[in-house]
Amino acid sequence: MASRYLLYYGRSEPLPPPVLLRAGPLTLLYDHGDLRYIRLGDRLLLLRLYAAVRDQHWGTVPGSLRMIEQTIHPDSFRILYESEHRQEEIHFVWRGEITGDARGVITFTMDGEARTRFARNRIGFCILHPASCAGTPCLVEHVDGTRSAAPLPEYIVPDQPVEPFSEMRALTMEMENGLRARLEMEGDIFEMEDQRNWTDASYKTFCTPLRLPYPVVIPAGTRIQQKITLSLENPPDVSAAVLPTPSAHRLALDPGAEMHPLPAVGLGFAESEAPLSSEQTERLRRLSAAHLRVELRLSDPRWRETLRAGTAQGAAIGAPLEIALLLPAEPEPALEALRTALKETHAPQIARWLVLPERERMREAPDHARLLRAARAALQSLSTRAEFAAGSNSDFLFANRFPPPAQADALTFAVNPQVHAFDNASLLETLEAQGAVIRSARRIAAGRPVIVSPVTLLPRHNPYSAVPLPWSPPPADYRQPTLFGAVWTLGSLKYLSESGASSVTLFETVGDGGVLRGGEVFPLYHVMADIAEFAGGSIIAVRSSDPLTVIGMALKQENRLRLLLANLTTQAQTLTVSGLPPQMTLRMLDETTAEEAIHAPEAFRARAAEAVSTDNSLLALTLPPLAIARLDAP
User: Fold this and answer.
1) Can you say whether the dihedral through the CA atoms of 293, 295, 296, 302 is positive or negative?
2) In contact, 216 and 123? CB cutoff 8 Å
């Protein structure tokens, strides 16, 4: 049993299931100190409500929770617990009380005390409004008693806070049929940021305002008390909260949606003491990587060694290089050294240059124009067809706030799902938000390609710290070699592709953060291999009735059609797919086939698929936990 959960998501024990609660007409989940998915019928009001402790580098200090009371009634509840946060000099303890009553009023209070003296950037509540609320009219009540009316923005807003959602003490959202959801916030001043800048699927209302200096040193004994109240105005009858009878999830191909070419999919270079084995090389070549991303930090004297090793690895797997140049403010000497090194060696084939500032700052615009001019002057003659892209080596926020000038051939930025939250549910929520990021990025790019490079499960560095942090090799997430890693990868490629990304770099070639390690391949390798077989093809959008449960990605190349379906949960899911041809073949990647897929990938991929027939273009399937089904039209 333990190995099953290791295969699912990299932990030996099952995750504690969330507790379903009801407060009058509202349904919600209690999940280890947090509230998730507060709904009125099918209408999602809040994605999440929780309290966080952030250190002076904006890192989240995890808490150890001790339950005190959990009283649950059919239409109300009361939960009382204590959360202790300890990390280095930080020791903070708070008591949380959550109640929900039959009227649909939910309250969440925290009463905390600093047990030591430490520096913090923020301690308090975070309220996540779902990205699906874009365009919803809102009424803001400010701390000075004034009011402002505005909708939640459609396109991603780079400014913090999102105006007029600042200096808030209450926020009312106008729903359909006269329904209003009201949030009252006590104990601090609250404001909103657009978390889609980091691919979170939400707008976040938080405290303390960013206009106030941080970090702040708080003495031992400091008390922090806050309260959030959610109530409904003009609620419907309580019966609206009755959950629908479970039925098959529905997926459908949407040929009427805008079709995009399948992006060029590349890999990241993994520095390793040992060269690729012949087996690893052959397996990587089968992925037909469009490029190999090699990151050169030209202020680091080891960049020449990285360039040599990256050039050799790119040649071995048959991929041109996408070179990410991390440039100092005065880039000319470093670029001249790079030019000389390239001329003195066997020059690699270059797909594009990513011209990026070495250090990015939240409130300081990089000189993109100068970096681009210097890079073109030094390097263009060495590879006349290579693009010169600019943007960010970090999150979309930086490219959104400081977009590159017209001289850039393309816009680039990186994606990872763990800037703010780290649990499985939060990572899956980011998938659909990646599509919103691409749509906003294409608006900024104004017809130029959008390059996502790289996509990783963990952040590779911290550009938000108030003090510079030393560079260190990027870490790898424990879910990388699991079935969870595979379904997340499929979801990422689905939304990036359907929204019009031109190029995507995924993970690394080998190692803990790669697609294979030693003599094994990770399950996500097969997702990439299935997609690589349709390189040069197109994407057909696939709509899901519940995109947090099941998703699909459709690939088309001439008369070939492939559909990849994923179950994002650890329970079997029944689904129906419409819009399919009469005959297809089915291959499943799940807990029963994963052993062969990991240890004998060639045999797994060569195994004959099962023939299946559709009924009036409709196919019914049951997907095992965290499984991926591949359907091919013969």
Assistant:
1) negative
2) no
**Token pair for residue 614?**
């559709």
Distance from C-alpha of 180 to C-alpha of 165, rounded to nearest angstrom:
17
Q: Domains in the chain: how many in total?
A: 1
Average pLDDT over residues 503-516: 96
Kindly state the tokens that stand for 398.
């930086």
Assign residue 274 a region (left: φ > 0; alpha: ψ between -120 and 50; beta: otherwise).
Answer: beta
- In a domain? residue 552: no
Q: What number of residues does the chain have?
A: 634
Neighbour count for residue 192 (Cβ, 10 Å): 25
Is 528 within the bounds of a domain?
Answer: no
Measured from the Cβ of residue 277, the count of other Cβ atoms closer than 10 Å reads: 12
Terminal CA-to-CA distance of the chain, rounded, Å? Answer: 37
Task: Flag whether pLDDT at 386 surpasses 70.
Answer: yes
Dihedral in degrees, nearest 10, Cα atoms 99, 92, 425, 98:
0
Domain that holds residue 224: 18-241
Q: Is the dihedral of CA 108, 88, 421, 162 positive or negative?
A: positive
Pairing of strands 168-174, 137-142: antiparallel
Partnered with residue 191 across adjacent β-strands are: 206
CB 57, CB 462: distance < 8 Å: yes
CATH number of the domain bearing residue 51 = 2.70.98.10
Give per-residue pLDDT as tens, 70-103: 999 999 999 999 999 999 999 999 999 999 999 9
Of the pLDDT bands very low, low, confident and very high (cuts 50, 70, 90), residue 605 is very high
Residue 211 is assigned to a structural domain of this protein: yes
On the CB side of 474, how many CA atoms lie within 13 Å of its CA? 25
DSSP structural state of residue 381: G
User: Is residue 35 assigned to a domain?
Assistant: yes
Q: Are 486 and 524 in contact (CB under 8 A)?
A: yes
d(CA 592, CA 242) in angstroms, rounded, equals: 36
With 0.85 as the threshold, say if the pTM is over it: yes
Q: With 0-12 CB in 10 A as exposed, 13-18 as middle and 19+ as buried, what is 245?
A: exposed
Rg of the chain in Å (alpha carbons): 25
CB atoms within 10 A of CB 176: 7
